[in-house]
Structure to design on (179 residues):
């Protein structure tokens, strides 16, 4: 099962997270410097970095989260194309309709749907509460602004991979829904 989230929300969350994870902060800053560095980092992950780079680096701390989203969503979609039986869940659907979506997920996983109410209770707990990634820590940081110019540049990368664009609703192939 692949869980994905609105691209802009991922970008902002990745930025806040990078502020408490030194290696993440370094990667975020390096992505701003050079598309060649971006390519090398993605190549090191075993992927073709050329596929995930823009011609010019985006001068925004939001680029890291968008590149991360593109890499992960592309990997998911490629896995489906190669025949892997995998489905996705949109995080925003899960938060908007937790009980119904938990039922759908449990049914998909061939687990008792009766566990859905218990699963929903987990939403009340910050799974990172005892770490530097706790909402109470990363939620305090101000997010970078998504200017129209940055949005346009980041949407180029998303469009290149056929992914939902920033500012537009988007459901990717294979997404489970309760409607």
């Amino acid at each position: 099962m692949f869980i994905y989230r609105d691209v802009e929300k991922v970008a902002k969350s990745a930025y806040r997270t990078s502020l408490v994870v030194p290696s993440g902060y370094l990667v975020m800053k390096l992505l701003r410097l050079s598309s060649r560095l971006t390519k090398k980092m993605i190549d090191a992950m075993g992927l073709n970095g050329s596929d995930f780079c823009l011609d010019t680096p985006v001068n925004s701390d939001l680029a890291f989260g968008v590149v991360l989203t593109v890499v992960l969503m592309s990997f998911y979609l490629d896995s489906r194309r190669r025949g892997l039986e995998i489905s996705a869940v949109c995080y925003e659907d899960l938060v908007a309709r937790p009980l119904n979506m938990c039922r759908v997920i449990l049914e998909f996983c061939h687990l008792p749907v009766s566990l859905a109410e218990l699963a929903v209770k987990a939403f009340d707990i910050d799974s990172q509460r005892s770490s530097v990634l706790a909402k109470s820590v990363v939620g305090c940081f101000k997010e970078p602004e998504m200017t129209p110019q940055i949005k346009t540049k980041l949407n180029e990368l998303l469009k290149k991979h056929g992914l939902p664009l920033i500012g537009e609703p988007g459901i990717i192939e294979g997404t489970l829904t309760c409607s």
The chain has nine helices and two strands.
